[in-house]
Each structure stands twice: as C-alpha cells, then as structure tokens.
Amino acid sequence: MPVANRIGVMNAADRMVLRIRHFARGTYPEADGTPGALPVNRFFLPIRNPNGEACYMEDGVIHETLHPGYVYFIPLFHTARVCLDAELEFLSIQFTLELYGGVDLFSRVPSIRKIADASWLARAEAAYAEPEEFVAAAMVRALTEDFSAHLLGTLTEEQLAFASAFSGFQKELDYIQSHCLATTTVDELAALRGIRREVFSRNFSLAVGISPKQFLTRCLVNRACDLLLHGDRLVREVAFELGFANEYYFSRFFKKQTGLPPFRFQEYYRPQKPF
User: Fold this and answer.
1) Which letter does DSSP use for residue 123 in this model?
2) In angstroms, rounded to a whole number, what is the distance separating the alpha carbons of residues 183 and 193?
3) I want to staple 44 with a disulfide (CB 3.0 to 4.6 A). Which of 69, 72, 123, 255 is the partner?
4) Where do the structural domains in the chain lie, given as residue ranges?
5) Which CA distances in Å does 1 have to 4, 81, 235?
6) What is the tens place of the pLDDT at every residue in 136-146?
7) How far is CA 113 from CA 11, 110, 226, 271, in A?
8) Which residues have C-beta within 8 Å of that of residue 147, sequence separation ≥ 6?
C-alpha cells in the first residue's frame, strides 16, 4: 500500500511547545486552601499523606483528598483551593503545552482531574532520582508528554478544537509575543486588522471562546511568572519591565490573577539550585 503521511499530525507536532516550569519533591506547608490560579498546568503526585483529609484540592466541581497512588491535575488559569500540611510528601511537575504562542492545549479543561494510576508516580520518582541531569530532563519530559497525551485523549472535540481557531489570529499572536506589556491594548490588536475594536473583540471571542482582553491578561501573567522565577529580578524591576506604573499596581494585578503576591510566588516557585 502507498505511504500515507498524516500531514496535520506532523504540523501540529511541529507547533507544540512543551515547557517544564517546575519539578520538585518534598513537603510544602504553606498551602492553606486560599483560592488561586496559576499560568501553568499542575501535575501533582502524593507520596505520603499521614493526615488524610487535611490535605485536599477542590474547585467548584469536585473536592479530592490527596491519596498516594493517584495523580491530580489542575489546568492552567483554573481557580482551585489547595490545602497541604507539613507532613504531606509529594512530587510536583508544572508545565505548559502550547500550540501557538500563549495558547495552551489544556486551556479548556473545566475542572481538576484525578487519575488512579501509581505508574506515573513511579516514573516521576525515577526521573527525580536520576543523577545525570540530561537523562533526568529527558525522563521528566517524556513523562509529561505521555501524561499530556493521556489527558488530551479524554477531552471533547470542542475542548480541543478551540486551539485551531487561533490559527486565524497568528498576526495578533505574534504581536502579543513581542509587545506583551501592561500597556498593550485591544485597540492595538484591532489596528493590525484595520477594523474597529468592537468588531475585533466580537470576532476573537466567537472564534476562541475568550475575549482578547482576557487573553492579553493571561499572556501578561505568564510573562510576569517567567520574569519572577528566572534571574534575580526584584518585584519592582519586573513591574517596570512589564510597563506597570509602579510595584503596587503590579502586585495587586498579580495577586488578583494568581491568588499570590509576587514575592510569595517567588518564594514558593523560584528554583533554589540548578536542576
């Protein structure tokens, strides 16, 4: 039989960009159940939970006690309450999987997911224990890709189809990637098309399911997180680089979007030593 190339699959694979944002093992006594939403997908694997129901995740759909042997997934920008005590031991992987700049494939997942499969923890433990960092990097990347494929296979056509809708806004996406500031406006995006703001906002919202203003906010939070976590920038330096009038306005914006003030976000997630 003749060779049949799946061109669409090849093109989608070329566009997919996986970034591992956080890979850690240990305890985390600071999570007190305050609602929060982060611009990363959270892949959470409990190892030991001696206090049972004291440690949980919940959103408006489900409430889940954290049990070893299960995997818990919180999609990016999804508001959830996470309560962890000082005795809970776990592995955590945070990642993004983007098809276009700023367009994550898990953007439409509506709630926390719980999966009963201890093999994910075994693989994560093996990756964390691997002393050669390039081997460990390949292992955690392969694990995250496999887990992503499993999750994507559970989504509906509607939850996946939205990503392709962004292909019609590539010019605007490229502009946002290079001009992602607090001062960037929907008017600028509309001007790229030569149409009124109201028309552009309506077309964008109908095509992708969120308003351009919401999308700009997500991209700004994403960039803020990158700047806060990489390098030694102070919060006020990040605020200035992102075009905020001052540190106070940036901190208020960041806490509203993520549930954490910027300095606390740095404490929790900035790497303390090389991976």
Assistant:
1) H
2) 19
3) 72
4) 7-155, 161-269
5) 9, 54, 61
6) 999 999 999 99
7) 28, 9, 25, 26
8) 43, 71, 120
pTM of the entire predicted model:
0.81
Tens digits of residue pLDDT in 37-78: 888 999 999 999 999 999 999 998 899 999 999 999 999 989
If you ran DSSP here, which 8-state letter would residue 120 be given? H
* Domain 161-269 falls under CATH 1.10.357.20: no
Stated length of the chain: 275
Q: What is the DSSP letter of 21?
A: E
| DSSP label of 260 | S
Angle at 138 between CA 272 and CA 109, to 5 degrees: 80
Phi-psi category of 69—alpha, beta or left, where left has phi over 0 and alpha has psi -120 to 50?
left
State how far the Cα of 269 lies from the Cα of 229, in Å rounded to an integer: 7
Question: 7-155 — its CATH code?
Answer: 2.60.120
pLDDT-derived band at 275 (thresholds 50, 70, 90) equals very low
What tokens appear for 73 in the block? 């997934």
Q: Is the pLDDT of residue 246 over 50?
A: yes
* 143-170: b (≥16 Cβ within 10 Å) or e: bbeebbeebeeeeeeebeebbeebeebe
Query: In the chain, at which residue ranges do the beta strands (DSSP E only) sit?
Result: 17-26, 32-36, 41-48, 56-58, 63-65, 70-74, 80-83, 89-100, 103-104, 113-116
Report the distance separating Cα 127 and Cα 143, nearest Å.
Answer: 9
Number of neighbours of residue 60 by Cβ within 10 angstroms: 12
Q: Output the six-digit token pair for 114.
A: 């719980």
